[in-house]
Structure formats: C-alpha cells, structure tokens
Amino acid sequence: MSSKKRILSGMRPTGPLHLGNLHGALNNWVGMQDEYDCFFFIADWHALTSDYENPGAITGYVKEMMIDWLSAGLDPEKSTLFVQSLVPEHAELFLFLSMITPVPWLERNPTYKDQIVQIENKDLSTFGFLGYPVLQAADIIMYKANGVPVGVDQVPHVEITREIARRFNFLYGDVFPEPEAILTQTSKILGLDRRKMSKSYNNAIFLSDTPNEIEKKVSQMITDPQRMRRSDPGNPDVCNVFEFHKIYSDRKTWEAIDPQCRNAEIGCVECKKIMAKNLIQAMEPLHERRAHFKAKPERVKEIIAIGSEKARAVAGKTMAQVRAAIRIKD
Fold first, then answer.
1. Which of 82, 104, 201, 209 could disulfide-link 311, Cβ–Cβ 3.0 to 4.6 Å?
2. What domains can you pick out in the chain, each with its CATH number?
3. 144: number of CA atoms within 13 Å, CB side?
4. Spatial contact of 85 and 62, defined as CB atoms under 8 Å apart
C-alpha cells in the first residue's frame, strides 16, 4: 500500500477542455503526481445533473477529455485515471449517503443557489441537481481521500463532504476520514471577452484548437477598453492580452511591452500577434502528445479500462466496510 497521502478530483465531460481548465486544475494535478497517490476521474454521471436532456454527447466528451488529460501530462503509471460510471459502487454509496443527508444542507449550497438563478435555459429543478453534492461526497470518500485539490470557490463543496462523512461516522462508526481541501494556485486567465473562460460563453481557447484557430481567437481578444486608436496610450494592468503575455511570453518580452503599450509605441494588433506566436509555441508539446493519443483510440480505451478496474477494486473494499457498518452485508 502506498505511504503517500491520497487525493481525488474530477471533471465533468460537458465539452472540450480549454486553457482555463489547464491552468485551473490540470497543471496542478500533473504537479501532484509524484507527491500524492492520485485518483482523477471523469464525472460522467455528474454531467447528467445539468445535461440530462442531451446524454448522447457525453460519451464522446469522455474520450476527448481523457486525451486532453494525457496530453497535459497525467500519467496512468503514476495516477489512477477512471470514469465514474464504470465504477457502479459510486451509485450505491450515493444511495446510502442520500438517506442520511439533511435537505437543508443541500439547499444552502452556494453553487446550487447561483446556478438555479444563472442557468435559465435548463430545468434544474430535479433531485439529481439538488443532490449532486451527495454524489460528489460519495466520489471522494469512496477512496478515503485525504485531500481534494480545489480553488477557493470550491471549498464549500469539500466542507459538505466533510459534514456528510462526519454524520456517517457518527451514525455507524468510523469508516471515512474527513478530507481536507488542498488550495491550489492558479494563473489568472480569462476568456477572449475578459469574462471567465467558458465554453458556454463562447470565449474559450481549447486545448484541441489548431495554431490557425488560436491566432484567429487571439486576434479577437478584448484589450484595454479605453484604448480606441493605435495612437492612444494603453494600460496593461487591465489588458487581458498582457495577462496572457505574463504566462506565455518570456519576462524580457512582457517587461518590454509594458512601457511600449503605455506610451503607444506598440499597437494591440502587433501585441496580439507576438502573444499568439508564444502561446502556440508553448502549446506545441501538448499538441504533439494530443495527436499521438488521438491516433491511438484503442490505447486510450485501454487506459480508461485499466484505471477504472483499479478504482473499482478500491471501491469494492470500501463498500464492504460500508455494508458491514450499516449491517447490510454481502
């Protein structure tokens, strides 16, 4: 058994991954692989909580997501990479946990409140959407994860998991550790329109985008909204393109662009072209790995199968303990 602490996290396959996903989660996961016993899963059942009317697309997104993960550097030799629905024990534990989770805990979830208001084109008044934190808790405590890598905005999700684990242990005896939130550092990266990068906003640069597509999207990026003409001085502090420069261009380049922009010595078109070139160059290794795995669908399928079997072996042991604790035995 590994002496490393175990972490678990997942993503919903609701569309292609973009740079926000890369910097918000994937890069952190890749960096954790040597330090932790990592379990990363594709949460296809979670995708049904909001996309239940269009389930057909989820299968394709699952395969593409795994390719993106492997392209970003997740290693099946270091991490357990699996698909949620291939480990049916998640559904069983979700059922047991739903029996003991008070409804007010779910109704006070800030994400639930926000999305009910913000997402107007979908009917989210379902038990599945209300109860997704319970399924999320089952995902995490199934593997007795010590920690969950998250951003600050996701800490409440981990806290409700801790509450559910605590309640289970109080009722039936100590079975689950209470996972800690592991706060991760993320680069500031917004969408083309300076809003949060999201496929829903049609403002994302995807990991699967070609160099030509990247160039076209960068050319459409909003810069300093007050700079109307080439001769106007700009303000890099409010320019999204400049934030990308600080990630993808070397320090010498963006330190030179800063005063040039402020003194109107460089235009936005030229600045964007420099950034696009550096972004494309930085993405080359990922694109090469992506092409490699895209050409080997059977290998990707094999990685999913092996990882899911490994996860299910762990889940089976946990569920044996759960059934014994609540006196429902095999």
1. 82
2. 6-189+297-325 (3.40.50.620), 209-290 (1.10.240.10)
3. 15
4. no
Q: What are the angstrom distances between the C-alpha of 16 and each of 20, 123, 155, 179? A: 11, 23, 25, 29
Say whether pLDDT at 117 is over 90.
no
CB proximity list for 36: less than 8 A, separation 6 or greater: 4, 5, 6, 7, 147
Nearest to residue 221, comparing CAs of 185, 191, 182?
A: 191
Nearest to 233 by CA among 255, 259, 254, 269: 259
Helices 44-51 and 56-72 meet at what angle, rounded to 10?
A: 130
Question: If you ran DSSP here, which 8-state letter would residue 326 be given?
Answer: T
d(CA 51, CA 46): 9
* pLDDT reported for residue 53: 79
Tell me the two tokens of residue 154: 């996701």
Whether residue 261 contacts residue 236, with contact meaning beta carbons closer than 8 Å, is answered with yes
Query: Which of 235, 240, 243, 238 shows the shortest CA–CA distance to 261?
Result: 235
What's the chain's average pLDDT? 93
Rounded to 5 degrees, what are φ and ψ at 79?
Answer: -125, 155
Helices (H), 73-190: 89-100, 103-107, 110-118, 127-130, 132-141, 155-172
What does R_g of the chain's alpha carbons equal in angstroms? 22
Residues whose CB falls within 8 Å of the CB of residue 153, separated by 6 or more in sequence, listed in order: none
pTM as predicted: 0.93
CA quadruple 60, 83, 210, 270: dihedral positive or negative?
positive
CA atoms within 13 A on the CB side of 229: 2
Six-digit token string for 308: 């899911």
Quote the tokens at residue 195. 């809003």
